[in-house]
What does this fold into?
Amino acid sequence: MKAMSFRCLTKPLATVLGSACLLLSSHALALDVRLGHGFTEQHPRGQAMIRFASEVDKATNGQVKIKVFANSVLGSEEKMLQAIQGGVQEFYLGSLVPFSVRKKELQIFDFPFIFANDSEVAKVLDGPVGQKMLDDLGDTGAIGLTWAGGAFRNIANGKRPINKFEDLKGLKIRVMQSPVAIESFKAMGINATPMAYAEVFTALEIHALDGLEHPPVDMFQNKIYEVQKYLAITNHVYTPVALVVSNKWFSALPADQQAGIRKAAAIARDFERSEEIRQAKEAVDKLKANGMAVTELSPQELDKMRAAVRPVIEKFSTSIGADFVKRFYAEVDKVRKVSK
It folds into this structure.
């Protein structure tokens, strides 16, 4: 009788133990990973990454859970990309400028006046040239999931309104720490001053700088209107941001989880681009409401800016790769013709 009871209990007990093992296994497979970026949670990019984390959770049935770290909590762009390369950090959203020494093609995004509007940018970046630039990151230890968004840069200063090209001359303007950007602004008669962005507000406050060039959304969120009086809409450069993942981490995932993450990245990209455009328009109005005088340069004055920077573009086209630059501009022209 005892032996029978034991046999009768064996199957239910095995079932219970098996279920417990499966439950423990599913919890063990759940991956808690980190995503870092340098923007506020209210920024379109910050909001998009919260959306991305949610979409990844759904797409992987809770097996990949992303914790988003905003405001450069995980370090500078360069440090976060180094962490991605080493597999210490799993996801990153931001500029790929730290890779531009090794991947010279990325320097093309510092060329002034490549793009005419946001729609044009999206089609080029999602096209064959943009996709190849992401694919070429493979040997860096990072995988480019998508060009997630970006924004056009404009010029603010505290000295005078900018109504014509000549009004730029002599202004001490903070520019990106990029040889192309520095020489482009110098060619326009500007005293181009590279500086870490974290130091800019104080420099403007004490008049060590006259101004800066930056997207309006960032200007508003960083309260640039407190230290600047004038904003000129030039849309001279479009700076894209990319969503990348550590190759070391991503390649170890099952194929279905990889596919789910790529799908979530596309959803977040579309959301981010839409929010970037919407908030850019709102930001200009908010800067006006906070006392900044906004001017928009005419096509004729913008042509003067283009003419001034043409020799710089020709110079850096050689160092980046003349064939690549030609292909990139050809893709822009193709998209532009189709859009007309």
